[in-house]
Amino acid sequence: MADMIKAGVMVASVAALLAAVAAPALANDPYGYRNSQVLLVSPEGDLLDYMPEEGEVVISRDNMGRRVLIDRFGNLIATEIPAETYFPRQRQARAPDAYDDFGAPQPGWEDDGIVTGAIPGPGVIDRQPLDEPLPGMPSGGPDMAPPAEQPPTRTVTPDIPVKSNLSQLEITALQVFLDREGVSPGVIDGKMGQNVNKALVAWQQITGETIDPNNAEDILERLRLSGGLAITSYTITPGDAAGPYVAAIPEDYAHKAQLPALSFTSTAEMLAEKFHMDEAYLRALNPGVDFTIPGTIIKVVDPGQTKKGEVARIVANKGLKQIFAYGADGSLIAAYPASIGSTDTPSPSGTVTVERIAFDPGYTYNPKINFQQGANDKVLSIPPGPNGPVGTVWMALSKPTYGIHGTPEPSKIGRTQSHGCIRMTNWDATELAKMTKAGVTVEFID
Length: 446
What we know:
Elements: H1 2-8, H2 14-18, E1 38-41, E2 57-61, E3 67-71, E4 76-82, H3 168-180, H4 194-207, H5 216-227, E5 231-235, H6 238-242, H7 253-256, H8 267-274, H9 279-285, E6 297-301, E7 313-317, E8 322-326, E9 332-337, E10 339-340, E11 350-359, E12 363-365, E13 380-382, E14 393-397, E15 403-405, E16 422-423, H10 426-434, E17 441-445
Parallel strand pairs: 7-17, 15-16
Antiparallel strand pairs: 1-4, 2-3, 3-4, 5-6, 7-8, 8-9, 10-16, 11-14, 11-17, 12-13, 14-15
Family: Belongs to the YkuD family.
Keywords: Cell shape, Cell wall biogenesis/degradation, Peptidoglycan synthesis, Signal, Transferase
GO biological process, one term: regulation of cell shape
């Protein structure tokens, strides 16, 4: 119980933990929480920020065999979690910072940098043994049976939707881990959906391993080993704030053709794409932030390094709405969600080849060979830009007018249809294009 009490005095949230924010850790800290074996996590995902008094709780077990604190009414107060899940191993204690990585005051700090509030010293509170019910509780407590056998790890399959009980930040951690592994979940938005499900299946195919989308401890540990915590801080630069940006992107292609470039419309939109995020989620992580001010510190996810490799074959699975990139040895290198064709303008069947690759391309609209857009009946030259019809990349295929390309609406990838082409997020399309050369085969399967 001593280790649990040590962990309970820390004031930090899962958001801060994922953002690599250190809780107060003075060298003379009598609790030495960095050496603690466990932490107490509340049902809301926060580390317990108070010490339950004797008689308030009983120690029990959940269905995963973890020790839990239950109050007299049967409500879950906290769950015991291994500390190493959250804190990197073998880190030296250091003096605390007055502000976290995002510029917000650390809990317990005043403007003068002095820690306020008292932490009870050892021996102040007499605790019950872990496996002994507290006085006044029914014998055995609500669940004092020996821990049940651990359920088998679930193998995710494409046709079974993932139902997750993870928090939004834990789902974010899963999405970031998958993105770093080269199996794109699409936009990172803290939501469990089919793009995440498909990425999990692809990851299992690449590694031969399985991952349980409801096992937060395993996900966070894998994330730590893949390059660190999911959320980090970023300082908006003068270049970020300067743009160039356009006020808005018109729907009509004739109006698009009149713009000098189809640039981003805001710093927030640009940063969301830079960090593979849904723009609404970026704003939600940074409430009230003015993204136009250089020097502003914001929270973003850390998607890791761009995938490297040489693609020899691409498979476009229409049913899954997913792209698979294979190496010369037949191994799966990467996988991406995609919007592939539609009923009116279906994608090709069979096998074609990549003819050429263009980055930051313009787009020529021809209603006689393309789809019909609005009332436009003339050939239009649409300028390049991330908000252009084909985004930041165009990989022309040997079947005329068809290609693999980016999109101005990344949050719709895998959820909507295209005009016969393969549409991906700009960052995924760019990553794939840099691993691909002219002559690579693209096979369309149903």
